[in-house]
Structure formats: structure tokens, C-alpha cells
Amino acid sequence: MLELILFYMASTIALVSTILALTRANATHALIYLILSLLAVAVIFYLIGAPFAAALEVVIYAGAIMVLFIFVIMMLNLGEKGDRREKQLLKPKVWIVPEILALIIKFELVLDLSQSTPATTQGLVTSKQVGLTLFGPYVLAVEIASMLLLAGLVGAYHLGRRYLEEGREK
Amino acid sequence: MDGVNIPLDHVLLLSALLFICGLLGLMMRRNIIFILVSLEVMLNSSAVAFVAAGARWGQADGQIVFMMILAVAAAEVAVGLGLVLQIQRRFKSLDMDDANRMQG
């Protein structure tokens, strides 16, 4: 029963923070809400018995991909306006809502882990199973993913260079 | 899967709602950063559907597809943010409507 309640709480947080993320005027605020939504989805993964996917969601989505977004927003160099925005970001009214929602997610995780039998022990897909499947029947998918990431790397390097704006003769 | 478990249709409903949020965001926002964020939300919602279906039958396949989606999202964001930088340099703005002309 507990896991159902936790699931509905986490999915409400995921939906609310996604809607808030997509309606913000400020990109940095939107990213905070998006990270929150990804963390809530990670809790949902954990509750439906996919702890490995939950860990990947936190590490890669909420970690690496969001850091990329933040780096680019920093590189866009908003100047004076950006400084004012940074000051505004430190005011409590900006971070208090995400903070409360994040605390609820953390509370859920702690509550579930503190049970003698965590809600997620039934129907669990372990990371060992995932690894065996990944490098067994799906080994071609790993190759395709590596090609895709290489193509993404080359494309991002090419697009990120400065000479594109300075004319093609350089 | 026995005992009390989270019903699959509710997880799929959540995934559909998240996808709709992302789609609406994609159609309504004009800031290119928010368009990329909406794409992320949509990819993530489809990943929720895959993982839920995989977990429902206790198979690892759903999580394999989730990892593929992660790779796609990472590559897409890297290229998309490179385009954001170029658009910002050329048009001095992040509005998509400033960049809707094909002039080579």
C-alpha cells in the first residue's frame, strides 16, 4: 500500500514540476524545476523495481545533461542582466518551492528504505540482469549507441567552433 | 509480479501526461532553450513507458531501451546546444522566430 502512495506523490511532483519548468520565463529557474522532475521520475523508477534505471536517471539525466544546459546558459554571457538574475536567484522565494518538493522526494526515498522489506523488492530487475542482457542479445545496440555518441561529439564540436560566424575563408 | 504493485496503466498515464506537457511546451514556447527542454521532457516520458513495461514483466529489456534513449538524449542535447550557441552569435537572440529564414 505504501508504495502506491509514494508513487502517486512522486508522479504528482513530476507533473507539477514539469509544468512549472515549461512555464518559467527564466531558463535557470526552469532548469531547477526540470532537475526536480527528473529526480521524481527516478524515484518512480525505483518504486516500480528498476533501481539501475533510477541511478542512471540521476547520474546522466539530472547530472550530466543538465550540467550541459547550465554551461551553455553560462556561455551565452547574459552580462549585466545576468548578474541581476543571479542576485535574484539567491532570494528565498525563488528556491523555496523547488526545495520543498525536493525534500518531499527525499522523504519518500528515506521512508521506503527504512521499511524492513522495502516496497521494491518484488518484481525487481537487478543491474546484473540488465548487464547480462545488455552485453548478450543487445550488444549491437551498444555499438549503435557508441556510433551515435561519436556522431554527436563530432557535430557538437563542429557547431561549437567560432569560425562559422567569422566567414569560411579562415 | 505478485502482491501489491503499482498498476501499469497508471505509470503509462503519467508517461502520457508528461509527453503532452512536453509537446505543448514545444509548440508554445519560442525560446530555443525551452524547446530543447521540452524535447528532453518528451524523451524522458517515453523512457518512463519503456521502463514501466519492462518492469511489469520482470524483464531487463525496458531498461536497455532506456539506456538507448539516454544516449539519444545526450547526443541530441550536445548538437542542439551547439546550434543554440551559433544562433545566439548570429542573431543575438534566442528566439526561434528570428531564425526561420533559410538564406544559406
Quickly list its features.
heterodimer, A: 170 residues, mainly alpha, B: 104 residues
Please give the structural blueprint:
The complex is a heterodimer of chains A (170) and B (104).
Chain A: H1 2-23, H2 27-47, H3 51-75, H4 79-89, H5 92-114, H6 127-134, H7 139-160
Helix pairs in contact in A: 1-2, 1-5, 2-3, 2-5
Chain B: H1 8-28, H2 32-56, H3 61-91
Summarize the structure.
The complex is a heterodimer of chains A (170) and B (104). Chain A is mostly helical and 170 residues long. Chain A is 78% helix and 0% strand.
Helix % of chain B is over 70%
Q: Name the shape of chain B in a single word.
A: elongated
Q: In percent, how helical is the residue content of chain A? A: over 70%
* Beta strand % of chain B: under 5%
CA radius of gyration of chain B is 18 Å
Largest sheet properties of chain A: none
What proportion of the residues of chain A form beta strands (DSSP E)?
Answer: under 5%
* Major β-sheet profile of chain B: none
Explain how this protein is built:
The complex is a heterodimer of chains A (170) and B (104). Chain A has 170 residues and is mostly helical. In chain A, 78% of the residues lie in helices and 0% in strands. In chain A, helix 1 packs antiparallel against helix 5. The model of chain A has no long low-confidence stretch (mean pLDDT 83). Chain B is elongated and about 50 Å long. At the A-B interface, helix 1, helix 2, helix 3, helix 6 and helix 7 of A face helix 1, helix 2 and helix 3 of B.
